[in-house]
Design a protein that fits this description.
seven-stranded mixed beta sheet; 33% helix; globular
Amino acid sequence: MKKERLVTREHIVKDLKKLGVTKGMTVIVHSSLKSIGRVIGGPVSVILALEEAVGTSGNIVMPTQTEHLCDPAEYGSGYTDEELELIRENMPTFHPDLTPTSFMGFIPETFRKQDGVYRSPHPHTSFAAWGEDAAGITQEHGLDFSMNEHSPLGKIYELGGYILLLGAPTNSNTSLHLAEYRQNNAFVKEKIWDVKIKKGMKEVWTTYRDINNESDDFDRLFEDFYSETGAVKEGLVGEARTYFIPMRQMVDYAIGWMDKNRN
């Protein structure tokens, strides 16, 4: 078997620059540490490389979502009614500085803990950000319609940000959810989510409204955008197949694509 080369922070910075990442950019990152290869320093080196590439005048943003704080019955848990009630009663509320991510990977889970990183307050769909505009990107994140134009995604869009799929699958592109709120057809129906929040001195269950976001066709959308626009830059970062995409162009394209392809 061929032995993988060792990947350093310097290698990653060089590869990012080759893709087009430059100082002052705002970049939302989806990542797979395993795909990058044998990184000396693991997720810490990847994070420091990303931050070096955009500099202190830029911003790095990562989804830090917390699916495990949803109502335990949401995904067909198999618990008894008694167990469901026990879980609901004892489930903690969201703590931006403490609550771990759900299924996000080693890189965002490490990133959210870094000094100087801000995390938005949404209990299910938070984002973490580092850089010049990090506080502004994350400080307001309302409960209802949590990935719309008023969310961190909308703020990245307004900043002219970029999407970096760093070894991550193309259907993991969170930015495409922003397009779902802007499409004209009725494919996505409204959904009511249960959530536990702190109200005064008490922790209580309440609800919020959202659309029923869907990502099953994001890979098809990516393929069409890739072939039709020529806007996707592709290369290796370490050993990871990586895509670098202008967010505004892709979201705008996705609105028309969804109107055409979702029934």
